[in-house]
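User: Working on a comparison across species. This one is Streptomycin biosynthesis protein StrI from Actinacidiphila bryophytorum. Can you predict its structure so I can line it up against the others?
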Amino acid sequence: MRIGLIGAGRIGAFHAGTLQAHPDVGELLVADADAGRARQVAAAAGGRALPVDALFAARPDALVIASATAAHARLIARAAQEGLPAFCEKPIALDLAGTVAALDAAEAAGAVLQIGFQRRFDPGYAAARQAVAAGKLGRLHTVRTVSSDPAPPPAAYVPLSGGLYRDCLIHDFDILTWVTGRAVTEVYAAGTNVGADYFRAAGDADTAAVLLTLEGGVLATATATRYNAAGYDVRMELAGTDGQVAVGVAARTPLTSVEPDAAALPGPPWSGFLDRFGSAYRAEMDTFLRVARGAEANPCEGRDALRALLVAEACEVSRHERRPVPVAEVEAAARACRGEARKGAVA
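Assistant: Here's the predicted structure for Streptomycin biosynthesis protein StrI from Actinacidiphila bryophytorum:
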């Protein structure tokens, strides 16, 4: 297969290495807004660097989108027009209107669009999902998630990221629904700024907590912070009437027990998302190549990204207005976006 990769940043470079090593990839084409960076990543992966237009003109068999978020929706629409199966890192766009427009373009063209929620390909989350589905926990009543970065991102990144709920916690919102099989119905969110001023200047928070109500009355909490020098910490706990399980509690979890009989961590803490989820990213890309060939059904469709974004949007409303927000309230705004888009198309 000839694969196009747009975006040669940190995750793009990782995907380039994965694609280069994959037996189904015969040629890798790399494009980036920074032509020098594209050449560097292409050379390291044995690929060929091209401008974006030339990459599309080369007629790849599939496209991997790992560019800056602002370009995602446009590239998804262009891939759909070209009839290319596309994989896109989350989020599709930083707002509902852009997300809905890109999804409508892909669906109108009948195009394949797989979204990059790599936690779905992690063995721990998959095992937790199986445990819930098999009823091993009894009646599920409580879920807790944690997402903590070891250090904050650069100041220039924050205004373009969409904020802590859309950029970081969106993974928790997706995995909550995927593992439990239940949609989020309401959120109550809070956020604080106790670190660098550039978070506040961007209207963002550097630490956040969310109380979520899921279908069937299951309660969940999701916390996130940009400041956790102990290491990269991503965990999930699920509790039911008959048992409880945890994901992400292992030898490298950056969590120290102060109980007198507790053992020290046997390994170094996770340093970042590629360290923690490297194998999940590779499994995700392997799956996309099979989806692109028509050998497997799409396990993470564009609508999944919209559902997670709706929860993130509800959190932003809740944080600013200091009230519980039903997700249905934000869904109504998404429907309005679709209606306006269709009226524009008719006009």
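For your comparison, note: The chain has two domains: 2-118+282-301, 120-276.

User: Helpful, thanks.
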